[in-house]
TrEMBL record:
One GO term describing the cellular component: RNA polymerase II transcription regulator complex
Section covered of the full-length record: 1 to 457 of 595
Name of the gene this protein is made from: E2F8
Protein name per Swiss-Prot or TrEMBL: Transcription factor E2F8
Location of the region described as Disordered in the Swiss-Prot/TrEMBL record: 37-57, 408-432
GO function term, MF aspect, one: RNA polymerase II cis-regulatory region sequence-specific DNA binding
Originating species: Neovison vison
DNA sequence: TCCTCCCGCCATATT
DNA sequence: AATATGGCGGGAGGA
């Protein structure tokens, strides 16, 4: 079934716009079918590593301009460091000005950590494709080629592609091949994610966690375990919560594979992370909060510290590509007890309702407007977190969907009310935790206060 | 020091 | 078995 051998088409990019000439001294191989002289083309590079002379930037000079235009911050960072200053530190290396430091150690201009950041890499990646590609032409992406052209190991490309996929900006076609969709559907996807986020009551969960922290700050230390339980029950009252990958109506995943079980972390995590922004009132989410919520959802019994740490690490990865997409930007929240790293949503304001809302503007490409309530899609693509060797669709999740449906009615209101009007409607859903209402009310208040104090650091 | 997060080993999933 | 994917977390660069 996998028509993997479709080498018939070629990359659409690198010709579309100015793109990356890449015609530089070094690499620059803009070959159509990448055939590295050193390695076999069809195997995992594993370590293509640095190509001859280390010139991380020059070949992409104009790309940089492109990037700068989009993200001034990046530009600043670059300027901060002398791009041309090839030698940093490296005491014994007399004067590198003499070009070839020859010898055996030409370790001089090491790209420097920042130049190898995922964020930068993502910018380069994105610069190769138009935001709104013409669906009529071939928009395939060959991971091998990209990895090679950007001079990074494949592993990094997976990181990028995975989150892009979570936003449906790309979709897997076959082994090593993805199709670029760009920002078509992006709003639709975000709308869907927002709906799911509301259904999952992320806003409430966030408040619960904040409340917890708030209390701990005082002396009520010891309320955490209780809180955890509430949160968990709330999400997936007995089974697993929403470990589902939200699909898009029109863009069903072609070429199965993607729907198989192993869809775990990054993709789903990325969607959830985005959901948090979309349901948060001051669209700001701290990594800590995000990590806690994401952890709370699966692995019920986890107080593990290392797990938390790992989660944070993943979030940084995701945040980097989301930042490259200009959907979020890094900020700091100054809460009681110090400032924490957080991110602020800078993406489009998305329409709250999943149904009845079409794209903001009529798109030329007829991407089947299957305007479907998110829950449908969600229900359709549920799979358990844990890799059950045989089942990708966890039966117990069906019930979750049911409950979600019942919740659903609540999302058709409150277009922009600052505080989720949860007390009223959600009271029924939260029935098992009546006392929670009172707490939520209190939290809401805190939330407001916090908001007012957000701006001024 | 703490915040970020690169790097790449190696378990899993696909072919 | 060979490859493709992608969890995961040690540990190092940077502020």
């Amino acid at each position: 079934m996998e028509n993997e051998k479709e080498n018939l088409f070629f990359e659409p990019h690198k010709r579309g716009l100015m793109k990356t000439p890449l015609k530089e001294s070094t690499a620059a191989n803009t070959v159509l079918t990448e055939i590295q002289p050193d390695f076999g083309p069809l195997t995992t590079p594993t370590k293509p590593k640095e190509i001859s002379q280390g010139e991380p930037w020059t070949p992409t000079a104009n790309l940089k301009m492109l990037i700068s235009a989009v993200s001034p911050e990046i530009r600043n960072r670059d300027q901060k460091r002398g791009l041309f200053d090839s030698r940093n530190g490296l005491p014994e290396t007399k004067d590198c000005l003499h070009e070839h430091l020859s010898g055996d150690e030409y370790e001089k201009s090491q790209p420097s950590r920042k130049e190898k950041s995922l964020g930068l890499l993502c910018h380069k990646f994105l610069a190769r494709y138009p935001n709104y590609p013409n669906p009529a032409v071939n928009n395939d992406i060959c991971l091998d080629e990209v990895a090679e052209e950007l001079n990074v190991e494949r592993r990094r490309i997976y990181d990028i592609v995975n989150v892009l996929e979570s936003l449906h900006m790309v979709s897997r076609l076959a082994k090593n091949r993805y199709t670029w969709h760009g920002r078509h559907n992006l709003n639709k996807t975000l709308g869907t994610l927002k709906s799911v986020g509301e259904e999952n009551k992320y806003a409430e969960q966030i408040m619960m966690i904040k409340k917890k922290e708030y209390e701990q700050e005082f002396d009520f230390s010891k309320t955490y375990s209780i809180e955890d339980h509430i949160i968990k029950s709330n999400t997936g009252q007995n089974g697993h919560p929403d470990m589902c990958f939200v699909e898009l109506p029109g863009v069903e995943f072609r070429a199965a594979s993607v729907n198989s079980r192993k869809d775990k972390s990054l993709r789903v995590m990325s969607q959830k992370f985005v959901m948090l922004f979309l349901v948060s009132t001051p669209q700001i989410v701290s990594l800590e909060i995000a990590a806690k919520i994401l952890i709370g959802e699966d692995h019920v019994e986890d107080l593990d510290r290392s797990k938390f740490k790992t989660k944070i690490r993943r979030l940084y990865d995701i945040a980097n590509v989301l930042s490259s997409l200009n959907l979020i930007k890094k900020v700091h929240v100054t809460e009681e007890r110090g400032r924490k790293p957080a991110f602020k949503w800078t993406g489009p304001e998305i329409s709250p309702s999943p149904s009845g809302r079409g794209p903001v503007f009529p798109l030329p490409c007829s991407d089947l407007e299957a305007k479907r309530p998110s829950k449908d899609n969600c229900a359709k693509n549920l799979f358990s977190t844990r890799g059950k060797p045989n089942f990708t669709r966890h039966p117990s999740l069906i019930k979750l969907v049911k409950s979600i449906e019942s919740d659903r009615r609540k999302i058709n209101s409150a277009p922009s009310s600052p505080i989720k009007t949860n007390k009223a409607e959600s009271s029924q859903d939260l029935a098992p935790f009546p006392s929670k209402m009172a707490q939520l009310a209190a939290i809401c208040k805190m939330q407001l206060e916090e908001q007012s104090s957000e701006p001024r650091k």
